Amino acid sequence: MKKKYQNGFLIFGLVVLVIMVWQLDFKEVWQGICHAGYWFLAVIALWLFLYIFNTTTWYIIIRSGLTKEEAKSVNFWWLYKITVSGFALNYATPGGLMGGEPYRIMSLSPKIGTERASSSVILFAMTHIFSHFWFWLISIILYLIFHVLLVEGHPLSAGMAIMLGAATIFCLLGLWFFIVGYRKGLAVRAMNLLGHIPFVKKWAKRFIEGHKEQLDKIDHQIAELNDQNPKHFISAVLSELSCRICSALEIYFVLRVINPSANYIDCILILAFTSLFANLLFFIPLQLGGREGGFLMSAKGLALTASDGVFVALIIRLRELVWTAIGLALIKMERTDKEKLE
Predict the structure, then answer these.
(1) What is the tens place of the pLDDT at every residue in 8-20?
(2) Nearest-angstrom CA–CA distance, 260 and 252
(3) CB neighbourhood size of 89 (10 A)
(4) Euclidean distance between CA atoms 342 and 339, whole angstroms
(5) Is 96 helix (H, G, I), strand (E, B) or coil?
(6) How many angstroms separate the CA atoms of 160 and 293, rounded?
(7) Residue 274 to residue 38: CA distance in whole angstroms
């Protein structure tokens, strides 16, 4: 990637990060860190390992479309750096995928070509979102088992039944949409969808007209990767789903500080509800307010106190800020490494 683009991504991310940090209540932050103690460090360290799941998913997708010789050009730990930086940009970008995905494509293109890089990044993003729908659906089943069937005298209320029913339909529709996208490609379908959204539909239509051939090639490669390598596809989805389930550990770590009796199933349910609510507000940078609101509502729904929800939300918000800073630093490190080679 050219230096000016790397500098652009870096500067943009730093500006947004400074704005996010500036809006924090530093007294509240310090009290939260002191209260969490070494569990806060455990939450930060946990994501060293969780990003390995994400990198593994992308690595599987990339290698499935390359020959053995071509695959040697993509090093796993270099890809790990790009993955972390990409998520850092997604955290800080309104609309999420408008930040990290272009960065990933521009970083990978010199190694495997623009079209293959684009198809692998789109497929990685699809798999990341696809795993969310599976995670939410599994969480609905867990809630029914552990909070309805196994709890005497706790029948499902009409309001909760409606909400769970709507969430189930939403998840099934999402899974259907992505399964079709895997088989037939999603690039053109996604751009056509944007063509019906106010404010961006004119741009989307012009983009489709000007890049129809490239979009068709990307869709062909996505469908080809899925059809020719079903084992790779399943492995990639399981890797992302495992990341979702294991990431509930950070909620478990934080709740252990204030509630030693916290159980892991409830942590999965809190994460599922919060991530669903936050993703509905995807257009907000760092999903400010949406994530906190999700924690408060999920904590209340699982008989936890509002203060528990606020505390968990604060620690996870700080973790995101720390890893956003780390990801931006890795962009700078990559640029420095390339300069050394020159």
Answers:
(1) 666 666 666 666 5
(2) 9
(3) 26
(4) 5
(5) coil
(6) 18
(7) 24
